Prior knowledge:
Elements: E1 6-11, H1 23-26, H2 33-44, E2 48-53, H3 59-68, E3 78-81, H4 88-101, E4 107-110, H5 112-115, H6 119-125, E5 131-133, E6 189-191, H7 216-230, E7 238-240, H8 248-260, E8 267-272, H9 278-285, E9 289-297, H10 301-306, H11 313-329, E10 333-340, H12 346-357, E11 365-370, E12 372-374, H13 380-389, E13 393-394, H14 397-403, E14 405-409, H15 416-430, H16 433-443, H17 451-459
Parallel strand pairs: 1-2, 1-3, 3-4, 4-5, 6-7, 7-8, 8-9, 9-10, 10-11
Antiparallel strand pairs: 12-14, 13-14
Helix pairs in contact: 3-4, 7-8, 9-11
The structure holds cobalamin.
The site of cobalamin has 36 residues, from helix 2, strand 3, strand 4 and helix 5.
Amino acid sequence: MGGRDWVLFVSAGITEPKKGNSPLNRLNLYLNYGLLGLATLTESRGYRVKVVHGRFSDPVDFLSKMEQLGIIPTRHPIMLSLPSSFCLEWAHIFSRTLKERFPDVPIIAGGRWVLDPDPAWAQRRLPDVDLFVYGTAEGRILSLLDAPESWSGVRSCSASLDHTPEAAPIQLPNLNYALMDDYQEYHPSLEMSRGCGFSCSFCVERNVKLQAIRSPASTIRELRRYMHRYGSDSIHPYFEASYFRPSRGWVREFKEKYRSDGLSVNWRCETRVDSWSVSDISDLAACGLKVIDLGFESGSPMQLMAMGKTRNPTRYLERANEVLHACRDNGIWAKVNVLLYAGETENTIAETMDWLDARRDCIKGVSATPLIVYRSSNNVSSYVSELSDAGASLVDGKRLEQDGYSFVHLSSNFPYERAAEMTREISRRYMSDRDYFDLKKFSYYPRSFSWEAFDAIVDSRPLNELPFSRPGS
Ligand code: B12
């Protein structure tokens, strides 16, 4: 094969890690499996494909490296993915520099959580991008490789008038990790389902119904394929889904197949506190489930109602209690996600902490985050006024337009800075350095990364910056 024939898939990096510019955040390897799926489809049609993550690199250095490797320039478009709004500045610098050096190389950008639903905004924010593709893209990725003149015939992109969303793929894409030179350092992901069905007014996926879950047989096949690819069964796949909700029948069948296949792979997933029964949890623990990210959000009934998480907070908290105990009893690490929401006060936070304190022995870790408003939320202005009715206000409304997100003052006596400080305090209360490391090492830190290396980095940081305690120091 000659030069200039690579199809390069770039997952835009982050110029500033969201939770501060800490070396601990820089270690995270966030796999863009949506992009890897598109690349896998492209490669299966005979193209020469490479997938590279920008991570926390300098976008200009990143580009130079691609040049040195001979991947750029190419006669195909560069496929640029924006997994979150925090990637916008990186994508901007990358695309501008690419056009300065290689004006003839087209750039196609996608990433529904950031770009949808406003083409004009995307064009203003990333003026060097030639084409924006909205929504999911499995059905269109190959047509995008055709000449730019034909893009107007591709639905739901900035070159066409027809913005009908793409239909859901018949099959969830299987991922070819070999397209990433550094895949061995990434923990693999396995996509289990798309869509959600909750229709939360602010979400990009609000109109996407929960789609069929990957079958137990396909899940086992993929786990086997991953073990083969990684040359090891000490892989920790993340079972990815916006709403992972296996039925009773699915759980039984998976358990049976996992056992009869003699698998021992441990995996992780995310779920709501009120969607699984205790028996599902013990069955899933018996077939490899080791870590659950629990979207708990709050122990304050008022806050749970305010964020629309439940209409029956008493029942919700009872179920959360059952789930946490089931995790503890079945050896599952529960990582509890807490959201500091509009209207939050010292009192509501105390309610949350009291609730968690009483269940401390069931909790491996807590990740607390303050509310962030994203421009891509559906009808963002009415969402912002809803928040203001609850006493909250944007820290800087202009940033929403420029950066695609804004931090929020949660109430008049609870400014953003206090919320950010509280999130670290809450996390620190329930998580030791070991807990934090265990959870990160399971899914996000490089697979080869050691406790000793972690410990050395942590030693060099001020204690009040850390989201975990240091029992030894
Ligand atoms: C799974 C997930 C992750 C995973 C995997 C991410 C991934 N992209 O694969 C991990 C753990 C790595 C992750 C990390 C983060 N995430 Co996240 N994540 C999600 C989640 C739950 C699902 C994403 C998803 O739908 N994946 C499935 C794939 C198939 O869809 P997709 O990625 O959108 O890809 C399709 C299209 O977008 C399009 N596409 C994508 N790229 C390209 C490129 C081209 C050229 C084309 C043509 C098409 C195209 O085609 C793809 C395939 O159809 C969402 C949403 C949610 N319900 O909460 C949040 C969400 C996307 N994450 C979010 C955030 C903020 C983050 C983090 C900053 C951490 C955090 N949670 O706070 C990091 C940052 C990652 C980064 N590098 O920027 C926000 C983004 C909001 C915003 N507008 O910025 C969301 C919406 C959650 C939220 N509301 O807070 N995340």
